[in-house]
């Protein structure tokens, strides 16, 4: 087992699984021969820590087959540093049973069973007759749905389709450890953490593509296509997933050189100017990042598209057209140039504001010949020779995403700020040049031209953009109505968005 441990404040002791999670127990030999290393960044050489400087405390937890494993380090763990703990472990849980359980439970609800006793129990639930089924998963459960499809679980034991429609939301370009021996399902790869875990690996696209490093042809929907259980699918992601979860690989070739064909039964929707978690519309103070978190509220858009998926499945009503940035029209670009400098198409440098030194790129790693077939990791690689190439949405002169290549919430279509899809780790959490996990940022415009000049802010001020609040709110309402007309927003959400726009009136006084 390999545990990567990063703390956000200096500490002598840490739960190696993180937060309220549990770990796999070391064997007796594993406890005796455990190794620990330290490095500042993913690509740095590992510095071995002497065995007499660290120890592991293993506590049984009632009702669980896993354990609370606490790492103690003499001299303490430093905030932001990457500590890698390796030991021989025992008693893996049967993680793949969850995927089978979803398949079998939904199949039972849809099709019933020949088991009379079980049918009687179903009758007691007084469920309506089910003609179709749609699945919706957000973040980790969205990644699970991608794996569910890829590993053929959308075919039940009688060969029938389980889900007619599937909607992964903010899942990014990868999978997760949901069907792997010694699985850790909540561990997620990011720019600063967890690069070499078996979460993100080929294939990334729903249609077939070719792995440039192995020659393998594959796609997430390949098994479902071969068994005639392929669902209608919508993939929704924010611009944050492009920076921190390699979201572009969903719709490009693995090396980021061309746009991938999108199957007729698939829609791709990118929500611009947004972070992983939907905001409230109101800026909040900085916490995990150096800048305030991105306040854009995008859930009304994703919930609208869920309704569109239901109608597509049940009524064959065509949903709105896919909208996502593309290589062909230069709306999807490299985050950095070949010399490592930031690409001005992805971020226009601003005085007093730092920018990312890198984005997350998926490593091509071999986990051994038993990984794809049996979910067994034979090899824990310490580095990667090759990387797939992820890209990011291009930005305009305000460092905002485009309304033509993304679905842009009204707050960004009629902006009073730059709504960034990334943020840098807060200074007090260490590693301040690295991307903060799953969060974006917010940089308000100056109210007046004078204040903008004083701040050396290259962006136009609020007074230069809008003659009055009335003009602003009129443009804002038109942007909201445009989303409704295009089918990306249900009319019932208009009041919610208009309240967010009205809350900005104070900025014009």
Give structural notes.
With 509 residues, the chain is α+β, with helices and mostly antiparallel strands. It has helices at residues 28-33, 97-111, 116-124, 140-150, 222-226, 239-244, 299-315, 371-374, 410-413, 449-454, 462-465, 469-486, 494-502; strands at 2-5, 11-15, 35-39, 47-49, 54-60, 67-77, 82-86, 134-138, 165-169, 209-210, 217-218, 232-238, 266-271, 332-333, 363-364, 386-387, 392-393, 417-420, 441-444. A 4-stranded antiparallel beta sheet has the order 1-7-3-4, with no helix packed on it. It has a 4-stranded parallel beta sheet with strand order 8-9-12-13, sandwiched between helices. Strand 12, helix 6 (239-244) and strand 13 (266-271) form a beta-alpha-beta unit. The longest helix is centred in the last third of the chain and has 18 residues, at 469-486. The mean pLDDT is 96.
Topology:
Layout: E1 2-5, E2 11-15, H1 28-33, E3 35-39, E4 47-49, E5 54-60, E6 67-77, E7 82-86, H2 97-111, H3 116-124, E8 134-138, H4 140-150, E9 165-169, E10 209-210, E11 217-218, H5 222-226, E12 232-238, H6 239-244, E13 266-271, H7 299-315, E14 332-333, E15 363-364, H8 371-374, E16 386-387, E17 392-393, H9 410-413, E18 417-420, E19 441-444, H10 449-454, H11 462-465, H12 469-486, H13 494-502
Parallel strand pairs: 8-9, 9-12, 12-13
Antiparallel strand pairs: 1-7, 2-6, 3-4, 3-7, 5-6, 10-11, 14-17, 15-16, 18-19
Helix pairs in contact: 12-13
């Amino acid at each position: 087992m390999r545990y990567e441990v990063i703390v956000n404040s200096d500490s002598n002791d840490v739960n190696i699984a993180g937060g309220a999670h549990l770990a796999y127990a070391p064997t007796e030999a594993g406890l005796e021969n455990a190794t620990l290393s330290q490095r500042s960044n993913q690509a740095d050489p590992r510095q071995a820590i002497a065995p007499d400087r660290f120890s592991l405390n293993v506590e049984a937890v009632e009702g669980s087959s896993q354990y609370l494993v606490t790492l103690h380090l003499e001299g303490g763990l430093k905030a932001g540093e990457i500590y890698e703990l390796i030991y021989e472990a025992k008693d893996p849980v049967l993680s793949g049973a969850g995927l089978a359980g979803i398949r079998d439970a939904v199949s039972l609800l849809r099709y019933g069973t020949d088991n009379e006793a079980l049918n009687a129990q179903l009758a007691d639930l007084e469920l309506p007759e089910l003609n179709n089924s749609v699945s919706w998963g957000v973040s980790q459960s969205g990644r699970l749905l991608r794996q569910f499809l890829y590993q053929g679980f959308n075919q039940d034991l009688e060969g029938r389709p389980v889900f007619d429609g599937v909607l992964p939301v903010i899942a990014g370009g990868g999978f997760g450890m949901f069907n792997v021996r010694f699985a850790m399902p909540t561990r997620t790869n990011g720019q600063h953490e967890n690069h070499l875990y078996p979460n993100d690996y080929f294939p990334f696209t729903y249609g077939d593509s070719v792995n440039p490093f192995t020659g393998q042809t594959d796609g997430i929907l390949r098994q479902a296509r071969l068994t005639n259980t392929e669902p209608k699918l919508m993939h929704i992601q924010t611009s944050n997933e492009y920076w921190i979860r390699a979201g572009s690989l969903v719709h490009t070739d693995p090396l980021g050189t061309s746009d991938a064909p999108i199957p007729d039964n698939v829609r791709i929707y990118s929500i611009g100017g947004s972070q992983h978690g939907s905001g409230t519309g109101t800026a909040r103070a900085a916490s995990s990042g150096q800048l305030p978190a991105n306040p854009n509220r995008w859930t009304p858009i994703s919930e609208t598209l869920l309704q569109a998926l239901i109608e597509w499945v049940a009524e064959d009503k065509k949903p709105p057209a896919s909208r996502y940035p593309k290589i062909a029209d230069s709306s999807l670009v490299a985050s950095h140039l070949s010399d490592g400098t930031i690409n001005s198409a992805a971020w226009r440098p601003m005085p007093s504001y730092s920018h990312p030194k890198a984005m997350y790129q998926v490593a091509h790693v071999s986990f051994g010949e038993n990984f794809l077939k049996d979910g067994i990791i034979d090899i824990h690689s310490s580095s990667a020779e090759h990387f797939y190439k992820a890209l990011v949405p291009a930005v305009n002169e305000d460092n905002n995403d485009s309304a033509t290549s993304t679905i842009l919430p009204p707050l960004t279509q009629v902006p009073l700020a730059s709504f960034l899809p990334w943020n840098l780790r807060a200074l007090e959490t260490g590693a301040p040049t690295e991307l903060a996990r799953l969060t974006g940022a917010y940089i308000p415009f100056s109210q007046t031209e004078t204040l903008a000049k004083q701040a050396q802010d290259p962006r136009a001020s609020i007074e230069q953009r809008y003659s009055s609040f009335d003009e602003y709110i009129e443009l804002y309402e038109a942007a909201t109505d445009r989303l409704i007309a295009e089918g990306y927003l249900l009319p019932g959400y208009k009041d919610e968005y208009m309240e967010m726009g009205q809350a900005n009136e104070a900025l014009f006084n």
